[in-house]
Amino acid sequence: MATITVRLDADDERMLDELAEIHGDRSTVVREAIRQMAASETRREGLGAFLDDWERELGPIDHAQVDEIVRRLQL
Questions:
Q1: What pLDDT is attached to residue 5?
Q2: In whole angstroms, what is the distance from residue 9 CA to residue 18 CA?
Q3: Is residue 2 part of a domain?
Q4: In terms of Cα–Cα distance, which of 39, 64, 75, 59 is closest to 51?
Q5: Are 55 and 61 spatial neighbours (Cβ–Cβ below 8 Å)?
Q6: Residue 75: pLDDT over 80
Q7: Model pTM?
Q8: Average pLDDT of the residues in 22-45
Q9: Residue 18: which domain range?
């Protein structure tokens, strides 16, 4: 298991401590943040691929349709 050092300003440290009180400890909070960021990136890449496929198969994207999808999915 790796150990890293991160420099935090006072606000970041306060937020980390508040989250640690809820979620157990600082390490748990940092690990979960990393997992959430990775999942977000995976979703972003998947959405990009979906939009590329959409344009390739159906032509230019209608932004009104995208807005409707975002609304329905509450993104």
A1: 95
A2: 14
A3: no
A4: 59
A5: yes
A6: no
A7: 0.73
A8: 96
A9: 10-73
